[in-house]
């Protein structure tokens, strides 16, 4: 039996740890991560090993040599260019003449490989994927199998709504050699994205084996630290090659501990480490080799590599320090600090929490290093939420963060691109816009400043003025700021572009231009007027003017109020303005519409993205009924191709029947803003996300047909919906989804987005929220009572599954 260890990864998410070494060589309790994998293979009698290399290959070769010192035989296959996971294994094809196992050199696991091999042989599979269950599957490839273990579906790095299971791909595969004959050599080819789907399409037997035991992919700095703590806690069946100095305290040879030093378990100290008296070493401290810890130093939950000097009375809390660092007397390193090789920190310096310091940096004595001085602090695990980049104003989202974000965007965008920028009237939003303009221009990106407006106008402007990208910054009522990033079609950028920006940001791969080739900034402050004029061209203005509509307008933004007033008065409407303090209650708007016998009431949030209409009878129109209203209105577009609207999977079933009656089209999409917008065809605007456009279209339609809105709503179908939010800890979401999938076997299920289950009484949609620790349960029933009962039933199941 032979194995292939994939050891070509750069480990960019582990930088600066991997600035000078490949990811498989990062130390775990003083030994390279890959050494633990070799020991695991050897434990199961696998001693013939091929190793794929690309990034800094000599460091791996020089340490392991031909494998003799480790009791195995190792052969190296080096790639001159990236070949993908499957392509790199194909490169070893001449070495692989029988069934073989593929495993990553940058993971830590104690799986029973023999059980996996027996499973593969019993099922006579062409390929078997070794799977495991994790709390948060977002960063992995989710794999779905049937009861026997046949793989039925792959979801590579899914969103929460696509997490139909908590069973993920570990990157450990058992393969028959003939699978390598399905693709060419020296061609970039990936296991999960290409080879395994190819096997499924050809009817080959592809199995998934769910392994018990420990597995960690060492994917980021937090996981790297935790893997060492897990080794100390005995959670991994792996040998700690050191003597137990005291219970839970492991030391290699030639470690000197001068009393009275206080050392708490668990801890690890590598060969040649010297700990002077008066030092305090708290639990979960890992020291590599030849480190010097001077008197009075305090170390807690920190990771030291080799040849570091920790000065007297220095405090290092929850930090990770690579090789050959000098930490001066009395210095303080706070939680989450990560320091690369050969750094020097002067005496009494203070490194703030979360700072990353790249190799060969020096910090002067008595200095305070904030997140913005050298390398950025991490805002969150992912920059992008479902609505863009979101955070607390001037806490998470600051001007210096905005400038770095712009530099990261410039790395992802094409050089010489033009980016339009706009903001809401909140002064801090304008300040962020200025920072982003500076960051983009410094990277050679041209900018077009649209001034103050709403996001719908920004979407219109990027298309109308042929910009390549757009950025809109808006303040929310809860004190948060949202940065929207749009493509040239005015759509939120796709996931691939989001990941490029995130990777550039976390890797500090910031674009910079030479001083003579910086980008140019142009001002175009009349975009808002252009947008309003474009809206008015969507209707017959003379018919609206003659109808003298009375509209009650409720808003909470000055710029939106001015725009809406200018729009309505320009259409010949009479307007009653409101500016409600209570944004959660419609009662005042309803009462004002009834009292003044108005034709229409409109309430909008400060960006006009969310809106509610009230009929002339004082009845609010729900979001679902609003979709039906838009279908009706847009079915009468003249001299245009048939209109298509994107509606979310949660919309009522009646929408398809209504569209058929009206000779329009609807396309069911995920509950994803980009996908809903992308599905809209033959309309320049976005009906479901643009309150001003919707207001104009409704008024124009009513004026053209001389009909009241209440009369129009009577022609639309009615339906019964219920919605409920259920709290669920992040770590339980994947488990709940898996158990829900198991429960729905044999039922009619749709997996477009979340889990949608049909029965004779209606349907229920179970959606894990992307941004919050809860599930959304959406139901439709034959009656209001049935819909409510369905929602309550499934909400109780979600609560129950979390405790199992």
Secondary-structure map:
Blueprint: E1 2-6, E2 27-28, E3 31-32, H1 33-43, E4 48-53, H2 57-64, E5 73-78, H3 84-90, E6 100-104, E7 108-109, H4 113-122, E8 127-133, E9 141-145, E10 151-156, E11 167-175, H5 191-201, E12 206-210, E13 215-216, H6 221-232, E14 243-246, E15 249-251, E16 256-257, E17 262-263, E18 267-269, E19 274-275, E20 280-281, E21 285-287, E22 292-293, E23 298-300, E24 303-304, E25 309-310, E26 315-317, E27 320-321, E28 326-327, E29 332-333, E30 338-339, E31 344-345, E32 350-351, E33 356-357, E34 362-363, E35 368-369, E36 384-385, E37 388-392, H7 399-412, E38 418-423, H8 427-442, E39 446-452, H9 455-464, E40 469-475, E41 480-486, H10 495-506, E42 521-523, H11 527-536, H12 541-547, E43 550-554, H13 558-570, E44 574-578, H14 587-595, E45 600-604, E46 611-614, H15 623-634, E47 644-648, H16 654-662, E48 665-669, H17 673-678, H18 691-705, H19 709-714, E49 720-727, H20 730-743, E50 748-750, E51 755-759, E52 762-768, E53 774-781, H21 784-801
Parallel strand pairs: 1-4, 1-6, 4-5, 8-12, 15-18, 16-19, 17-20, 18-21, 19-22, 20-23, 21-24, 22-25, 23-26, 24-27, 25-28, 26-29, 27-30, 28-31, 29-32, 30-33, 31-34, 32-35, 38-39, 38-40, 39-42, 43-44, 43-45, 47-48
Antiparallel strand pairs: 2-3, 6-11, 7-13, 8-11, 9-10, 14-15, 36-37, 37-41, 40-41, 45-46, 49-53, 50-51, 51-52, 52-53
Helix pairs in contact: 7-8, 7-10, 9-11, 11-13, 12-18, 15-16
């Amino acid at each position: 039996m032979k194995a292939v260890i994939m050891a070509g990864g750069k480990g960019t998410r582990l930088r600066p740890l991997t600035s000078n070494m490949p990811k498989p060589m990062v130390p775990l309790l003083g030994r390279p991560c890959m050494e633990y994998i070799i020991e695991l293979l050897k434990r199961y009698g696998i001693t013939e090993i091929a190793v794929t290399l690309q990034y800094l290959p000599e460091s791996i070769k020089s340490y392991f040599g031909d494998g003799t010192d480790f009791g195995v035989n190792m052969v190296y296959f080096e790639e001159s260019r990236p070949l993908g996971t499957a392509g790199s294994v194909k490169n070893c094809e001449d070495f692989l003449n029988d069934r073989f196992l593929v495993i990553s050199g940058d993971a830590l696991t104690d799986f029973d490989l023999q059980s996996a091999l027996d499973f593969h042989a019993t099922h006579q599979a062409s390929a078997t994927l070794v799977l495991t269950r994790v709390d948060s599957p977002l960063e992995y490839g989710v794999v779905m199998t049937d009861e026997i273990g046949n793989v039925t579906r792959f979801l590579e790095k899914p969103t929460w709504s696509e997490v139909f299971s908590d069973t993920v791909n570990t990157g450990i595969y058992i393969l028959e050699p003939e699978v390598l004959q399905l693709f060419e050599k020296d061609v970039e080819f990936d296991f999960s994205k290409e080879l395994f789907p190819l096997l499924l399409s050809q009817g080959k037997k592809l199995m998934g084996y769910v392994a018990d035991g420990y597995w960690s992919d060492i994917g980021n700095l937090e996981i790297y630290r935790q893997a060492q703590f897990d080794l100390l806690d005995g959670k991994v069946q792996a040998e700690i090659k050191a003597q137990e100095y005291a219970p839970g305290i492991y030391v290699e040879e030639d470690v000197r501990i001068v009393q009275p030093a206080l050392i708490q378990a668990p801890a690890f100290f590598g060969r040649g480490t010297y700990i002077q008296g008066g030092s305090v070493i708290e639990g979960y401290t890992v020291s590599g080799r030849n480190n010097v810890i001077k008197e009075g130093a305090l170390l807690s939950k920190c990771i030291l590599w080799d040849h570091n000097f920790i000065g007297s009375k220095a405090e290092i809390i929850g930090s990770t320090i690579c090789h050959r660092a000098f930490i001066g007397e009395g210095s303080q390193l706070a939680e989450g600090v990560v320091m690369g090789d050969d750094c020097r920190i002067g005496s009494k310096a203070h490194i703030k929490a979360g700072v990353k310091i790249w190799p060969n940096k020096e910090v002067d004595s008595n200095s305070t290093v904030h997140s913005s001085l050298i390398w950025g602090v991490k805002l969150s695990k992912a920059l992008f939420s479902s609505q863009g980049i979101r955070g607390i104003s001037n806490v998470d989202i600051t001007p210096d963060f905005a400038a770095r974000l712009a530099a990261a965007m410039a790395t992802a965008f094409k050089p010489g691109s033009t980016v339009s920028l706009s903001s809401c009237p909140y002064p801090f939003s304008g300040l962020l816009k200025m920072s982003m303009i500076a960051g983009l221009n410094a990277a050679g990106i041209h900018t077009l400043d649209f001034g103050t407006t709403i996001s719908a106008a920004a979407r219109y402007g990027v298309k109308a003025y042929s910009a390549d990208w757009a950025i809109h910054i808006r303040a929310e009522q809860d004190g948060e700021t949202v940065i929207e990033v749009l493509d040239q079609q005015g759509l939120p950028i796709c996931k691939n572009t989001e990941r490029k920006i995130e990777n550039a940001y976390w890797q500090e791969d910031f674009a910079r231009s030479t001083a003579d080739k910086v980008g140019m900034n142009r001002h175009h402050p009349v975009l808002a007027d252009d947008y309003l004029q474009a809206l008015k061209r969507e209707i017959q203005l003379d018919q609206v003017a003659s109808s003298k509509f009375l509209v009650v307008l409720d808003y909470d933004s000055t710029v939106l109020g001015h725009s809406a007033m200018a729009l309505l008065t320009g259409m010949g409407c009479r307007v009653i303005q409101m500016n409600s303090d209570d944004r959660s209650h419609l009662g005042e708007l309803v009462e004002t519409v009834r009292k003044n016998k108005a034709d229409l009431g409109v309430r909008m949030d400060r960006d006009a993205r969310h809106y509610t209409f009230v009929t002339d009878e004082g009845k609010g129109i729900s979001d679902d009924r609003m979709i039906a209203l838009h279908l009706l209105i847009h079915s009468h577009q003249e001299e245009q191709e048939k209109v298509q609207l994107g509606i979310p999977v949660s919309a009522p079933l009646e929408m398809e029947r209504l569209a058929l009656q009206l000779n329009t089209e609807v396309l069911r999409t995920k509950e994803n803003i980009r996908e809903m917008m992308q599905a809209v065809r033959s309309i320049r605007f976005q009906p479901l996300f643009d309150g001003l456009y919707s207001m104009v279209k409704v008024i124009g339609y009513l004026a053209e047909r001389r009909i009241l809105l209440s009369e129009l709503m009577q022609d639309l179908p009615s339906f019964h919906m219920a919605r409920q939010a259920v709290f669920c800890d992040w770590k339980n979401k994947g488990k709940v989804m898996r158990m829900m999938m198991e429960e729905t076997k044999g039922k009619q299920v749709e997996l477009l987005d979340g889990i949608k289950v049909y029965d004779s009484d209606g349907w229920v949609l179970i959606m894990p929220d992307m941004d919050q620790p809860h599930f959304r349960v959406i139901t439709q029933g034959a009656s209001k009572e049935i819909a409510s009962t369905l929602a309550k039933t499934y909400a109780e199941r979600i609560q129950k599954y979390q405790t199992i």
